[in-house]
Amino acid sequence: MPMDGSTTSNAPGRAEIATLAGTVVSLLNGATPRRAATRVEAGAQILYDATRPGLPFAATPTLAQLHALGLGAADIVDGCIPAAARRLGSDWLGDRLGFADVSIASARLQGLLPQLSPPGGPDGAALDEVRTALIVLAPDDTHTLGVHVAAAQLRRAGVSVAILFGPDRAALRDALARDDRDIVLFSCGLSERLPYITKMSAVLRDETDSGALSVLGGNVLDRHDDLGERTGVDLVTNDVRAALAMHGAASGSPVRSRR
Fold it and tell me: Where is the signal peptide (predicted)?
């Protein structure tokens, strides 16, 4: 929801649609064996072909194709979906696909995620025994695929995740008062939304009793170098592992990987 002076454009802008690619959480760092990388590339091609409009789309047979390549849920979420999304974003920028086509394809990619990760947090553990995260999406960020990929990665790591879309000050305060979180991740795709992130970071720091680690991610990281100082967050990264590692170092909580 628009707030705090943010503006809304009814016509999709090229920079806005480009965030489809940029806000997708980056592939996990580190060297990837070539054979595994080849499988991910093949899986990304399957997703790119299957999700483009013009043909019926069925999630279950598409995932079956990926599994037949030896790809697990982590490979698909961390590798295939981001790669397919980046290609869609590139097609938009190169005028090879229109706004409606990219929007439909990204929605289809996002629709795969519930089948690849648990809907809430880890099973079999009390809420006070697992780490919790809140993802805050900047207002008018119309493409939410990257946010949902990040949520799926966090859930696979054993984190209970909630998402807020463009909350105002009161909504963020109320959410944290009801359920304090270990990590608050702000997602920002556009430079003009940075003032909103700065205000929400200040709310977290100055207007709540939360001791949550604050993290900024999104396409905006590719455009600015001073985002930590500018927004007041604790960490600037598009790698959820870095956020989990920093929280673990600060709290003494180990980073667990659940697949």
Answer: none
